[in-house]
Amino acid sequence: MTSLSPYLSYNGNCTEAMNFYAKLFGAKLETLLTYGDMPPEMGPCAPGAEKLVMHAHLVHPGFTIMAGDTPPGMEFKGIAGAMMAISFDTPAEAQRVFQALSEGGHVTMPLSETFWAQTFGMVTDRFGTPWGVNGGPKNFKQP
Asked: Given the DSSP bridges, would you call strands 106-112 and 7-10 parallel, antiparallel or unpaired?
């Protein structure tokens, strides 16, 4: 089966972000490998990078997220030009998640009714991940 998963980059806070998302979405953090976990035959870990995440894999029945900290020696450029779009059956669940993502983040579009959903909003969370949160889909006819 083919699957598509976002792979997000963080600036040293991947562990915190993945643990937050696991709790928020009721998901399971199946993998969290650090550069310090690398086997010796892969070469030495860059000094100070032992706790940086090389690979994380979060699993939820409706989606997966993969992520890691920017590798040592590479410039962190943030997440740009994309957002995590998530949809919920009810506006209440969308509001709960939007509120949690907003804490310490930056709301770019407050939750409000749209022609496609009872509520929709956009926020960049405190980890730098942009989100589009939908709740309560509406039936609408496309032209």
From this structure: unpaired
Total-model pTM: 0.92
Question: On the CB side of 123, how many CA atoms lie within 13 Å of its CA?
Answer: 24
- Evaluate the CA torsion angle 32, 37, 38, 44 in order and state its sign: positive
CA distance 11 to 27: 22
3-state helix, strand, coil in the chain (%, to 5): 20, 40, 40
CA distance 135 to 137: 6
> Could you count the other beta carbons within 10 Å of the beta carbon of residue 1?
2
**CA distance linking residue 41 with residue 45, whole number of Å:** 11
Tens-digit pLDDT profile for residues 2-25:
888 999 999 999 999 999 999 999
Q: b vs e for 7-39, b when ≥16 Cβ sit within 10 Å of the residue's Cβ?
A: ebbbeeebbebbebbbeebebebeebebbeeee
Q: What residues contact residue 2 under an 8 Å CB cut-off, 6+ apart?
A: none
Task: Give the pair of three-digit tokens for residue 104.
Answer: 């310490």
